[in-house]
Amino acid sequence: MSCDKCQSIKKVIKVPRDLTEAILLAKLKIEDGTLKYLGAGAYGDPFKRIASGRGWSDFVNNYFSCSSCNQIFSLHAETYHGSGGKLEAVKEIQGELSNDVYPT
Predict the structure, then answer these.
(1) Residue 19, by phi and psi: left (phi above 0), alpha (psi -120 to 50) or beta?
(2) Distance between CA atoms of 74 and 85, rounded to whole angstroms?
(3) CB 49 within 8 A of CB 101
């Protein structure tokens, strides 16, 4: 269950601009201490790469957690076919995470 600090972190991704906004929202929340970066999921680029504006691959798949309540968040999108995605709270991490890091 999300807390007051993180409950408003969500974004539906339908077009590339939405994905850019979701990446910037996650980056902002890491920088202000609300979120901690956990790692990239299957086929996902490291968040450091996409947050720096260097673009993304066919799949965006990154995980974060709230620094207060430990709620897990997933930033996921399938960009190749343009089927979209979300930045949203999830119950659990799907699969293995890479051990990449994002500086805080």
Answers:
(1) alpha
(2) 10
(3) no
Buried b (16+ CB within 10 A) or exposed e, 75-89: bbbebeeeebbbbbb
Cβ atoms of 45 and 60 within 8 Å: the answer is: yes
Instruction: Enumerate residues 6+ apart whose C-beta is below 8 A from 35.
Output: 6, 9, 26, 29, 64, 65, 66, 67, 73
The tens digit of pLDDT for each residue in 63-104 reads: 999 999 999 999 999 887 767 899 999 999 998 888 777 765
What residues contact 87, with CB distance under 8 A and at least 6 apart?
9, 10, 11, 13, 22, 25, 26, 73, 74, 75
Structure-token match 């399938």, residue found? 78
Side chain identity at 55, as an amino acid letter?
Answer: G
Q: What single-letter DSSP state applies at residue 55?
A: -
pTM of the model: 0.91
Report the distance separating Cα 76 and Cα 69, nearest Å. 21
